[in-house]
Amino acid sequence: MAFHETLNYEKGAAPLYAQIEEILKKKIESGEYKKGEIIPGEKELMEQFGVSRVTVRQAMGALANGGYVKSQRGVGTEVIFDKINEHIKGVISFTDEMKLHNITMETTYCTMEKLHANQQIAAQLSVEEGENCYCLTRVRCVDGSPLVYTKTYLVAKADYPTDSTYYKESLYKYL
């Protein structure tokens, strides 16, 4: 069966290479393609997804840049991603985790807005669609360079301030 049926060709959809990258990433993360395995080659992926060689190469390049695969001429593309199972002893904020590594974080962009949960957000938060929730968007930097961009959705169990100055540091500490 051809996989190209799963690609979204609608206007405004993610580029085909990004969709293929996401499909392959899920297969790797789920263990369908295990570390050390050679995944299907360009020609097979072109046939499976019904796309051009350029599109497949873009997807594979993105997977390689993300640390999921590495290509070797004459060998193929090998899965190098390995799930890390950490034994978590407790919840720690991103800010505190960075401090453990002697990295000082700075929030350079921050917004907090109250909104109504759409279908996807409602499902993730286990609330009714249209229910009030909050969206915290932040860019966290190290030495002036962006390190992480996050969107955090919160159930409106409390009346959180929308003034972004409250959220420049650790969200866990604020909550």
Please describe what this structure looks like.
- The strands form 2 sheets. The chain has a 3-stranded antiparallel β-sheet.
- With 175 residues, it is an alpha+beta fold.
- It starts with 15 loop residues before the first helix and ends with a helix.
- It is built from 6 helices and 6 strands.
- Helix 1 crosses helix 3 (53-65) and helix 2 (42-49) crosses helix 3.
Helix content class: 25-40%
Rg over C-alpha atoms, rounded to the nearest angstrom: 20 Å
Whole-number mean pLDDT: 87
Ends distance: 49 Å
Structural class: alpha+beta
Give the CA-based shape: globular
User: How do the strands line up in the largest sheet?
Assistant: 1-3-2
Strand proportion, as a percent range, falls in 15-25%
Helical segment tally? 6
The major sheet is characterized as:
3 strands, antiparallel
The SSE order reads HEHHEEHEHEEH
Q: Pick out the low-confidence regions.
A: none
DSSP E strands, number: 6
Give a quick precis of the structure.
31% of the residues lie in helices and 25% in strands. It has 175 residues and is of the alpha+beta class.
Features of the shown structure:
3-stranded antiparallel β-sheet, 175 residues, alpha+beta, globular
Give the secondary structure arrangement, pairings included.
Layout: H1 16-30, E1 38-39, H2 42-49, H3 53-65, E2 69-72, E3 76-79, H4 94-100, E4 106-116, H5 119-125, E5 132-142, E6 145-155, H6 171-174
Antiparallel strand pairs: 1-3, 2-3, 4-5, 5-6
